[in-house]
Amino acid sequence: MLTPFELKSVTIPNRIVMPAMCQYSAAEDGYVTNWHRVHYGARAVGGVGLIILEATAVEKRGRLSNHDLGIWDDGHIQGLRELVQLGKEQGSVMGIQIAHGGRKSWGDELVAPSALAFPESPTPHALSISEIKAVIESWRQGARRAHAAGFDVLQIHGAHGYLIHEFLSPLSNERTDEYGGTLENRMRFLLEIVEAVQEEWPEDKPLSVRLSAVDYVEGGLTIEDTVEISKMLKRHGVDLMDISSGALLPADMKLGPGYQVPFAEAVKKEVDIPTIAVGLITQSELVQEIIFNGRADFVALGRELLRNPYWVLEAKADQDIWPWQYHRAMLRS
Ligand SMILES: Cc1cc2nc3c(=O)[nH]c(=O)nc-3n(C[C@H](O)[C@H](O)[C@H](O)COP(=O)(O)O)c2cc1C
User: Fold this and answer.
1) pTM score
2) What are the chain's domains?
């Protein structure tokens, strides 16, 4: 778990990932604040291999709250660049998740593939073809800004019931044009985003996609669909799959330690692509088991890293991992 992993030109120093986690702490209009500097800086001091910044909105109307980070304007680049520098100085690889909330966005400008509401939310506007192209362009511009800010990993948020997931799932996509119907058509929006992003994102830096492997609802996405989508993403040059699940619709999910690992494992085995496993993983024994048995290449610790930014340091007393300033605390005796 503490061995490095090479992805294109980027060496990730260990297999521990901090997954994207919204902090709802951006200033008005999506700007970085001191909260982000302390929050991400602490996890970098704590030795996290890959830090993926929270869902950062490619369009203002695609934010999940009015205090989400934004990447829809060139003015956002400078604050994000400072976070990259902070993290890199401490040895972490810095990534960013770019996102659009679709029908689950905050505010009253909800857009989606179809005019189907998330339960107890307003009905979204179904995007026209020309509006779809404009949204794809905003992802392209987001990738350009992420590159300008110096991130080494870019993640496209295709999970958790947000805009891309809404296109992928037949439960939220009832379109009858080339963006709806068959899985091939439902994937088109995501694949066009990948292509647009690749025009701006350098070829030698890893591109990641996060998917919800299953919808946990009858008629929704299955792990077989996710394997097919991942195969296509690999063919399109995606380097790293981050496998989560659910959140398209309220559903009955059985939660327990490592409950989503089998999904990451299926993608890794069937598609032969590096993966991140995530979900209720807190113990280093479980992390070791997942990595050692080749069930995933990385393990993301979400809430555990919120509780304990020094999780990696506590896992091993090692001068190479610990910042020198803390060496006197390395051994407890
Ligand atoms: C406060 C919080 C914010 C989150 N925000 C995001 C997000 O921005 N993007 C995302 O893909 N997932 C988000 N998630 C989901 C986490 O990335 C992760 O998949 C989830 O917490 C399960 O992992 P855990 O059990 O280790 O916490 C969030 C989770 C939490 C707790």
Assistant:
1) 0.98
2) 5-329 (3.20.20.70)
